[in-house]
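Schema walk-through. Below, the input block comes first and the output block second. Nothing else is stored per chain. Lengths vary across the set, and this one has 196 residues.
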Amino acid sequence: MREDALATRLVEHYEATAESPAIRLEEPYDADGRQGVVDLFVRTRTPEPVDRVIELKADAAVRRATGANEILRQYRRMERYFHVDERHALRPKLGRTEPGARYLLCFAPTPTCVHHVAENRTLYGSIDPDARAGDVPAVRTVAFLTGLDGDPVDLGLVSVNGEAAFGSAPFRRAVPEGSRLAESLRAVDDDLIEFP
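--- output ---
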């Protein structure tokens, strides 16, 4: 599975689930001399603006990376500098009821990505979900994508950095039966994963 296929499914999901989302692929940012590009940027209104800044990782990216530290450096750099760029700045709103930014690191549900995350579960699991974009509350999520083959509305995430640690009983319950993720978890036939 390639990152462009993941991006396509995410675009279809937000077009199907949000009213008039602003969606940009390969969105550049430049803040304090720090330049970068995020795979996908989605701004929705609920009615306040909520930004989803998404870094996608499929097999090729996981294989090319020198390790989880490299992937996390890229993710944390995105988080630190994306909203500092004046073009993407978030402003505090009175009465905001949910986070204004969601920083997502999404892995493809493939055996290669599952093995990588399993080997590095402590690093990925250590990412604190609570964050801030300046004065605006934010959330960090490291997760596998699910529901890639069905209706775009059903696209989902199974987090590895929330309350359900990778491989835990709550994590296993969150994995949809018969999904690519469930199959990939079963396909990794070593001591890293015990999946029924």
